[in-house]
Amino acid sequence: MLFGRYSLRCVTAWAGMLGLVASFTATAAEPAAITVGTAAPVSGAPSAAENAASDPLLDSPGDGSCGPPGRIWFRAEALLWWTNGADTPPLVSTGIVGQPGTQILFGDDPVNAGLRGGVRLRAGTWLDCGQSRGVEASFFWLGNDGDGATFGDGAIFRPFIDADTGQNSIEIVNLPGVVDGRVVVGTGSSLLGAEALWRHNLCCDCCCCFDPCDCSKVGVRRDLLIGFRYLNFSDRLTIREDLFPLDPIVVPGTGINLTDSFRAFNNFYGLKLGLALERYRGPWSLEARPQVSVGALVRDVQIRGNTTVTIPGVPDQQSTGGLYALSSNIGDYSSTRFAVVPELDLHVGYLIRPQLRLLVGYSLLYIPQVLRAGEQIDPVVNTQLLPPVVPPVTGPQRPAFPNHDSDLWVQGLNLGIEWRF
Question: Is the pLDDT reported for residue 264 higher than 80?
Answer without folding.
Answer: yes
